[in-house]
Amino acid sequence: MKSTPLLDRLLQIEAEDITSFHMPGHKNGKIFKKFHYKNFKQHLANIDTTEIIGTDNLHKPKEIIKQAQERASEAFKSEETFFLVNGSTSGIYSMIMAATSPGDKIIIGRNCHQSVINITILGDLTPVYLYPEMDIEKGIALGISPEEVERRLIENPDAKAVVIAYPTYHGFASDLKRIAEIVHSHGKILLVDEAHGAHLGLSHRLPMTALECGADAVVQSIHKTLPAFTQSSMLHVQGNRIDREKLKFMLRLHQSTSPSYILMASLDLATTIYQDYGRELMEELLYHVEVFKNKMKDIEGVTVLGTELVGKHFIKAMDTTRLWISMHHQGIDGYELERRLRDKYRIQMELSNIYGVLGMTSIGNDKEDFDRLYTGLLDLSQHKEDKGKIEKMPFFSYSIPKRTFTPREALYKPKKKVLLEDSIGHISGEYFIPYPPGIPILIPGEVIEEEMINYVKTMVARGMEVLGLKDITCQRIEILTD
């Protein structure tokens, strides 16, 4: 048989016995060893089926899928829950289009997932942006000011909805309850991208869930922090501000007509584990995290972010299951730290930037995982580096650019490619998304400023990633010619 490069690589990675501090939340299937429900993993090929007698239909559920979604609704405390097999993106598309009509205006956090920007194109919406507070040195987004939300609502009384990411990738939770009160006092709809918070309901020591805070619709990436397969998500709804029938139509519009029964079954199993064992497993996880962080305090040269930012920068609470680790002051940047942890200690983190690495823990992690991470960091700390001080993240003001066209209007305008330095003052046809922090500093339809160009050039020169440009060398950008 000829080689199968993708499958072969995945099998190779499986054989390496890598400790997972990245998504998905089942941690290389480790949690299924505890909850090997009817040995379901041995039957994956056989249960990969379609709509036949006895399997129901996701787009018109009457039997087992209806029952599974109702169980999930009970577990996650929603009024109604929908399974998503096209990832959280399909849920974000559906809830926003259910809450709006073409030509409407919506207020969105600038640190939202790119799918939120994309749906303004598909739905012909006009976005109004909110910037979160920023930690420039670490390259991460912090909290969103409730007062800034209200200011935008007063300035845009015709806006139909507000879209907020809660919590952030790094675990920071804004005062969403206050934001919900403000949004609803203005008669608007609050939509929440809770992709990174499906586990929050498992402990009072974690931030409140978006539903508890009063959100009208919430999308959760169950696969990120709970034991479901990648691409498995849920959409939760409560209250009467969203037309449920319109929402169901949008879900049919944005999801496959051949939904994966394996993904839906994994959501069903994740619901059972969440409801029956989740709180106990979360207490174990929080204990392991606390022990790990306390041990790390004694290691010179390694910094682990705690809860010291809570109460500052509009951060109401912190998801302590996230591990933000830096050896920046010891001469090891985040990219190098991620590589060494993987190559030498068989530990894979979720992401890295010049400052540090982010670890995503879940109820699938155990004591052995934390012991391995501690041992690796301890060993690395004992090998002093002589690289000099690592450069800080370049400064950027994070002001909202002037917009000439909406993203949808910009998409259909004629364009041409020019050198970055020749684009200043022109209207962009592409995105600038420096990573970190993953927040667009330029969106199609906005005017290109000199500060943006200087920032991107500095990022590229330092080997950092800039997403959104078709030119992989990041030397040219498309501008509108009309």
Automatic annotation (TrEMBL):
Residues covered by the Orn/Lys/Arg decarboxylases family 1 pyridoxal-P attachment site domain: 4-324
Source taxon at top rank: Bacteria
Classification via SUPFAM superfamilies: Ornithine decarboxylase C-terminal domain (SSF55904), PLP-dependent transferases (SSF53383)
Keywords, ordered alphabetically: Decarboxylase, Lyase, Pyridoxal phosphate
Keyword Ligase attributed: no
GO molecular function, one term: carboxy-lyase activity
InterPro entries for the chain: Orn/Lys/Arg_deCO2ase_major_dom, Orn_Lys_Arg_decarboxylase-I, Prn/Lys/Arg_de-COase_C, Prn/Lys/Arg_de-COase_C_sf, PyrdxlP-dep_Trfase, PyrdxlP-dep_Trfase_major
Keyword Chloroplast attached: no
Cofactor (UniProt): pyridoxal 5'-phosphate
CDD domains registered for this protein in UniProt: Orn_deC_like
Residues in Orn/Lys/Arg decarboxylase C-terminal domain copies: 400-461
Family affiliation: Belongs to the Orn/Lys/Arg decarboxylase class-I family.
Protein name: Arginine decarboxylase
